[in-house]
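Our preliminary data section would be incomplete without showing what the modeling component actually yields. Below, a chain of 162 amino acids is followed by its predicted structure, encoded as tokens that our downstream tools consume directly.
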Amino acid sequence: MFKVGQKIVYPMHGAGEILNIEKQEVMGKEKEYYVIGLDINDMQVMVPVDNAKQLGLRKVNTELQMKKAFDVLEEKSRDLSDNWNHRYRANMEKLKTGEIEDISEVIKDLYIRDQERGLSAGEKKMLENSVGLLISEVAISSDIEQNEAKEIILEFLKKNDE
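Predicted structure:
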């Protein structure tokens, strides 16, 4: 169970902080909910405490785990399917895991593909959202502003341009 004030990551939504744990009555049953303040779009969400694990709520990564994610950003791209639909589905599955290395892999692959051949509108949106997810976790784990986190991520990606 998470505690108020704890920094967490909610897959597909980004990093945030447990602001409160509240009891709410829903359909005649009282349940406990985490009230989470998310950095992306500065919004709050409520997540049932008993569903947190199934939804993938996790602690913010350690510095060592963040380094592994940055290492992924620096790697050269793998051969990806030419079929945008297959790529999109594979990338979506990685994002749903909420694992930082998977998110970094999606970002790196889409960034490189964009540099080489361009992206479909859906993939451009996916890249933008993925970068936002990583920015939110880098910022909250390192206690820095999101602009700084974005610059750090871009520096690692630019190493692929060299």
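Residues 7-59 form a domain with the Thrombin, subunit H fold (CATH 2.40.10.170). The mean pLDDT is 91. Preliminary results of this kind motivate Aim 1 of the renewal.
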